[in-house]
Amino acid sequence: MLRKIFALILCGGLCGVLSLDRLSAKSAQDNTLKLDVNLVNVFTTVTNPRGEFVTGLSRDDFRIFEDDVEQKISIFEKDDQVESAFGVLIDNSGSMIDILPIMKTGVLDFAQKARRTDEFFVMTFGTRAQVMLETHQPVRNLDAAFRTLQAQGICVLFDALIQGMTKVSKSDQERKALIVFTDGNDNGSKAGFGAVSLAAQRSSVLLYFVPIGPRVHIDQTTVESLAKLSGGRVIYLEKTDPIRPAMESIRTDLAKQYYLGYYAPVRPGVHHIRVEAPGRDVRIRAKTGYVAS
Strand, helix or coil at 102? Predict the structure, then answer.
C-alpha cells in the first residue's frame, strides 16, 4: 500500500515538473516571438481631391507596404474621439523679430480657448530651448512668460525638435504631434538635420510646421521634408492670417486619422512605408518610414 502511495506521489511530482517545463518552454517561446517582431504604428490622414477628410473607411479599404512588401494590418482604429498630445514650439530667434508678436498672440488665444481635455505644452527656442508652459498648467503662466519673451540670438531649431519629440513621446496618448512656428532656418543647433530625421523616424510624433511671412525667407526644403517624413504637413500663413484656425485644423487633422498597425520582423536599419487605398480617388498622408535598431 505504501509503495502505491509513494508511486502516486512520485508520478504527480514528475507530472508537475513536466507541466512546469512545458509552461517555461511556452513562455520562452512567447518571449522569443515578442522579441522577433515589431509593432509598427502608422497614423494615416485621408482626404479627397477637394481637401476634405474622407471618413467611414474600413480595414479592407487599405493596403500597407513595408519595403514594397505588403503587410497584414493587425490593428485598425478610426475613433475620432481619441485625444491627442502635442507640443507647441515657437521660434524666438533674431529672424522672428517682426513675427514673434503675431505668434504669441495666436498661441495665447488658442491656449485660452483650448478644451480641458487637451494635453499640450509650449516651448520656445532661440539661443536655447525652454519650456514656457507645462501640460495642465494655468494659461496665465504662459501669458506672464510671453510678456518678457523677445526675439534675439541664433536658432536651435533641430535641438528643439529633438527635445520636443522626446517630451511629447512620454505621453500616454496614442496620437502625438508637434506644432512648430518657425521659418525653418537653423544656425545654432548641436544636432544636424540627419539627427532630427532619425529621431522623427524612431518616434511616432507627427511634425506640423506653421511658417509665417514671405516664402522667400522660409527654408521650405527643411520644413516640407520633415513634415512629409513624419506624416504631418506644412501650413503657410501670411502675417495678416489668424493663427488659431490653423491650429484648430491640425487638431481636427489628428482626430480624423486612421490608426493602422502591423507586425514586422525586427531588422535593424531604415524601412520604407507606403499606404494605399486602391480604387479610391483620395490623397493619403502617413509617415514614409521608420528606423529599427
Answer: helix
Angstrom distance (rounded) from CA 125 to CA 196: 15
Q: What is the largest CA-CA distance in the chain?
A: 98
According to the model, what pLDDT value does residue 63 have?
98
Strands 258-265 and 37-47: antiparallel
The CATH number assigned to the domain with range 84-254 reads 3.40.50.410
Residue whose grid cell is 486612421: 258
Q: How far apart are CA 166 and CA 131, in angstroms?
A: 13
Domain coordinates of the chain in residue numbers?
38-79+257-292, 84-254
Residue 34's pLDDT band, with cuts at 50, 70 and 90, is: very low
Q: Are 28 and 239 in contact (CB under 8 A)?
A: no
Q: How far apart are CA 120 and CA 116, in angstroms?
A: 10
Cell numbers placing 14? 514528475
Question: 123 near 156, Cβ under 8 Å?
Answer: no
Task: Indicate the helix (H) or strand (E) that contains 147.
Answer: helix 139-147
Contact 91, 155 (CB under 8 A): yes
Q: Are 100 and 182 spatial neighbours (Cβ–Cβ below 8 Å)?
A: no
For residue 72, the Cα-to-chain-centroid distance in whole angstroms is 22
CA dist 183 → 63, 116, 119, 179 (Å): 35, 30, 25, 13
Strands 269-276 and 63-66: antiparallel
For 245-254, write each residue's pLDDT tens digit.
Answer: 999 899 889 8
- What is the sign, positive or negative, of the torsion defined by CA atoms of 250, 255, 260, 266? positive
Residue 240, SS3?
coil
Retrieve residue 86's grid coordinates: 502635442
Q: CA 15 to CA 106: how far, in whole Å? A: 71
63 touches 274 (CB < 8 A): no
Q: pTM for this structure?
A: 0.85
